[in-house]
Design a protein that fits this description.
The chain is mostly beta strands and 129 residues long. The chain is 0% helix and 38% strand. The strands form three sheets. A six-stranded antiparallel sheet has the order 9-8-3-2-1-10, with no helix packed on it. Strands 4-7 form a two-stranded antiparallel sheet.
């Protein structure tokens, strides 16, 4: 069981740190470009997949035909670079009734799925969705 907490790893993040915008199954990595106690603004990074199915890497993702279009398996690896033209997003710190701090995209519902911000760069594109 998760114990509610009034802190979140992003509460101590700094400008220049990595952060990840979690949509639903996809996640987009970015860099914190501005912050205050209650708001964090990120700019999305350029994320390049290093081990795609045709990459020749030892850990290349595997494409298996079937189903609607096919299935991708394996663990993707990405290289992150600053993208001066990257989309800029602002998130606000919220504490819902359960006491679990969340950072949500400004303009979205606190309790809606997706549109949350997490610490670190963890880009992921769900090829299977």
């Amino acid at each position: 069981m998760n114990t509610p907490t009034n802190t979140h790893p992003l509460d101590h993040a700094n400008v220049g740190d990595g952060a990840t915008w979690s949509l639903y199954t996809d996640r987009k990595a970015g860099t914190i470009v501005k912050r205050s106690a209650k708001r964090i603004t990120i700019r999305l990074d350029a994320a390049t997949l290093l081990n795609g199915p045709d990459s020749g890497e030892d850990d290349a993702l595997v494409f298996t035909p079937g189903g609607f279009a096919g299935h991708i398996s394996g663990t993707p690896r990405y290289r992150y670079e600053d993208d001066p033209e990257g989309r800029v997003l602002t998130f606000s710190r919220r504490v819902p009734k359960n006491g679990q701090v969340v950072w949500k995209l400004v303009g979205t519902d606190t309790h809606a799925a997706g549109n949350s911000l997490d610490a670190g760069r963890h880009h992921f594109y769900d090829y299977n969705f």
